[in-house]
Amino acid sequence: MKPEISEFSYGFALTNELVGWIALSAAPVFPSLIEEGKAGGGYDVKLDRPGVPLFLQFKRSHCMVTRAAREYRSVLATGGTLNVPYYRFPITEASTSDQHEMLLSLDDGSNLVFYAAPRFYQIHEINQAWSRNDIARRSLFVAPSTIGSLDDEQHHVAFDGANTWLCSEPRALEVLTSRGLEDRLSSYLEEHDQPLGERLPLLVTDMHQAERRGREKAELRRSSKVPQDVPFSDRRFITDFESSALWSAEEYVAVSLPEPDPPASREPKPLRSEAAILREAADIAAHVFEAQMIIVQPR
Fold first, then answer.
1. Confidence (pTM)
2. What CA–CA distance (Å, rounded) separates 283 from 298?
């Protein structure tokens, strides 16, 4: 069954919920909304306190309801378990985009990077989860490093309530629930107690290096094959959220809409040094890695 919700709707709902985590403070950073003193602008980061970046790429889940589905049959053939109905989301093919290779390069052990996908696909389900503050609990978090490099074939992550598989040739994956993600973030914060403002220059350097590694690896893969005319994928900027970042919870209702066009670019507001670096990091996350950067700090 095709998803009725958009990545935009799911990503906004999940991000909004993460901001309200009890044990941690999570602030999504939108490149053009970092304006000091602007209430509700997505800028609630304490640069003089420890903090770690969380990078999320949002995926829509398709619901598979029959045992004739490809992933079910292939997992069953290996002796594995995948219960029907189950969900799946695609990993963008290497022949189409460098997206996965770029995220894999960013997920090098020094950053927290995940695909995030819901265990629901219908409008009434996301609205119900939203009203119950249940979006994160009904989500799955998959690190690109657990998937590894992929070839040009089509690949999906297939999952039910207990099992997660990378397909086409099935391989079991270790994934995180929302509780597991919160525990991982808490542990990471304990290990990284340097003030965020001091870490930002190194973070931006690391992101540039990850971009270079990812592009070099993707180019090496392409150069080892017969040249093909392959178009680059259209970039869907996470800055789409900026127009909705000021919505209140009462105003939000999920709707089934096509992915919105990215907002028109505008001249960024001059910022102090640390805030400017923070904006640069968020901009790289959105435009290079197609991910939402969220800064997580202890309360």
1. 0.83
2. 24
